[in-house]
Amino acid sequence: MIYQDSRTILEVRNLCASVDGTPILKNMDFTVKSGEIHAIMGLNGSGKSTFSKVLAGHPDYEITSGTVLFEGKNLMEMEPEDRARAGLFLAFQYPIEIPGVGNSQFLRLMYNTVQTHRGKEELDPLEFDDFVRDKMKLLEMREDFLDRSVNAGFSGGEKKRNEILQMAMLEPSLAILDETDSGLDIDALRIVAQGVNQLANKGNAIIMVTHYQRLLNYIVPDFVHVMVDGRIIKSGGKELALELESRGYNWVSDEYKAASRVAR
Amino acid sequence: MSAALQNIINQPYKHGFVSDIESDVAAKGLDEDTIRMISAKRNEPEWLLDFRLKSYAAWLKMTAPTWQNAHYPKIDFQAISYYSAPKQKPKLKSMDEVDPELLRTFEKLGVPLHERMALAGVAVDVIFDSVSVTTTYKEKLAEVGVIFCSFSEAVKDHPELVQKYLGTVIPTSDNYYAALNSAVFTDGSFCFIPKGVKCPMDLSTYFRINTEESGQFERTLIVAEEGASVSYLEGCTAPAFSSNQLHAAVVELVALDNADIKYSTVQNWYAGDENGVGGIYNFVTKRGLAKGINSRISWTQVETGSAITWKYPSVVLQGDNSIGEFYSVALTNHYQQADTGTKMIHLGKNTRSTIVSKGISAGKSNNSYRGLVKIAPSASGARNYSQCDSMLIGQESGAHTFPYIDVRNNTAKVEHEASTSKIGEDQMFYFAQRGIDAEAAVSMIINGFCKDVFQQLPLEFAVEATNLLSFKLEGSVG
Q: Which among B359, B319, B364 has a CA at the least distance from the CA of B339?
């Protein structure tokens, strides 16, 4: 939702980033305000997943120039764990398996660490159990999920639900959902989307990175952006996603190239 | 971790490998006269001198083993001094005199207060001025008839028991280092649990070794008579320094009918510096004889120190229905080399053994599991389950598994499972993205990996061991 009295959550200016010396993001500009839901769409290799990882602080990516302000703070000076504690959440495209580490133990450490850094009370194991089970209902998760190792042997749908569960627990001010719809069957997609919609409110913001318009039927964006070759070349409302679905991406690139030529 | 802490754990080997000139140190070198001298200095009975000489004769005919997956310069056995009078650690009057860095290390490891004092060399009796912990402990044990003393005291006070069991599990000619130990051992622990007695508390070497160094050739003998049980703890999590580079200990356990011995070790000897210079060679022979029916011997070890670790705590399952267990965590970092595992020798009927080995390799270290499961023709219905898991940290460490299985009875069941995993950058990033820093993440992953072993340790030991592993790995990930 777009609000009049919103505040700026994320402000990206002229961001350039590379991996192993190869430039991926090229002068990316992007602004997100509270209450808004953004969708970033684009083909494989357009840089949209890189953008998510750069925001979260993945060590493989090098920022070569530009600025990123997260709630007024210079994000690039913050360690990945500090970004998370400050309220930036990334739902991973491929959540990693951590064999041997129990899910409930992991979730409790995550929750209590972040709570402590936000100056709030930790929950003891019993209180935590009530808390997490309550959140699990939101995502229709099975009870035995807590006893299993983090993501180990989880189906694609279970992994994505686990990501959204963590988002529900941490209540981030900015959630980035990286291809959360990939690998989900239609039921799981509905449950995940329902979870996200319940979490969206006036005080936070969501960025969805996706290939397909399908997810956007369930989580309706306020803005849709098209990313090509490391930058956003077109932005619009939710109808842009439908247009992309029917016409593909080429026309956007062509239009952009034509406009660039005129400008020159 | 703070730089100060890093320093104390990895502090340069300040003691050196050459003993200071003292009045009561034997000249370097080993021959029959040296052994007669050691025995005479210790006022040993004739039978013990014979035992030493027999061992020495056996040792002379043997050559140092080279099959282990470890590389080090040839040891010059004539360059070692084999006897020095027991040294007293300097006694301090209070905790105020202890090196504050050392105290911080204990703090970080969670070593209990009274134990910190003993480890730091503070006279415990001075602190607890009314009743000393050690005295209370000895009184309680004496009430139930448990003998727990140094090996020398045992030779003096209970010679018949020592003579009856010494060398019955590990014969003098068993292997090169065991033979050497049998010839020249200086001291160690003796523990005897009489028939039907459940030892009322865990026996910890810390209560015995706080006044003197045990020396490099330590000898331990534990006997549990019919229906007796004991839990024995060796070592501690605090870094241990030694004035000797080569350590070749021998530990023998004997369990009679229905007896139960649980032996837990946490080893944190000096491992050498980051470049692999210095560090202890820990070549140990540990074996238990589950002699009686329904007897049980269980080894649990957490090996984190030493430049080279070479040990295979084993169980000979002689009594019918006897049980042997081996739970091990071996962690190597920098240039450490560990070749460790177990032998389960099934002789009796329906004998059962369990092996759970967890190897963690970081830095440029090499970690090998080597194990033998042998089922003799007599061992009808024997069963073994082995699980060997390795975890690699970084790109330059190595993990190796050498399981040997020798089954001579077709009613036996033997299972072996193995896995290798890796702590990767992506796992660390996942934790970081959830607000969890690298230190807590590694600790959680390692704990998860080792939990099957840690849950075998006595509780306080388990907590310390957990901290120790995280501590040893700091800076290796991410």
A: B359
Domains: count for chain B: 1
Domains and CATH numbers, chain A: 8-100+172-263 (3.40.50.300)
Indicate whether B107 belongs to any domain. no
Smallest CA–CA separation between A101 and chain B, in Å?
Answer: 5
Query: Is B430's CB within 8 Å of A105's CB?
Result: no
Is the CB of residue A58 less than 8 Å away from at least one CB of chain B? yes
Amino acid B7: pLDDT: 40
Per-residue tokens: A148:
């299993």
B5 within some domain: no
User: Which of B1-15, B17-31, B90-104, B211-225 is modeled with the greatest confidence?
Assistant: B211-225
The pTM of the whole model exceeds 0.90: no
Evaluate whether residue B141 is within a structural domain: no
Element (H, E) at B382: none
The per-residue pLDDT for B58 is 94
Q: Where on the phi/psi map is residue B363: left (φ > 0), alpha (ψ -120 to 50), or beta?
A: left
Please give the Cα distance from B125 to B131 (Å, whole number): 7
Which of B429, B436, B451 comes nearest A113 by C-beta? B436
pLDDT at A79 over 70: yes
Predicted confidence (pLDDT) per residue in B126-171, tens digit: 333 333 445 567 778 889 999 988 888 899 999 999 999 999 999 9
CB contact B422 to A (< 8 Å): no
**Which residue range(s) make up the domain with B382?**
34-86+146-424
Asked if the C-beta of A90 comes within 8 angstroms of chain B's C-beta atoms, the answer is yes
Question: Is residue B444 less than 8 Å (CB to CB) from chain A?
Answer: yes
Closest CA to B227 of B194, B274, B267, B264: B194
Q: For B443, which residue in chain A has the nearest alpha carbon?
A: A101
So what's the pLDDT on residue B133?
A: 47
Q: Does B417 touch chain A (CB under 8 A)?
A: no
The one-character DSSP state at B292 is S
Q: Which of A60, A84, A98 sits opposite B433 (nearest CB)?
A: A84
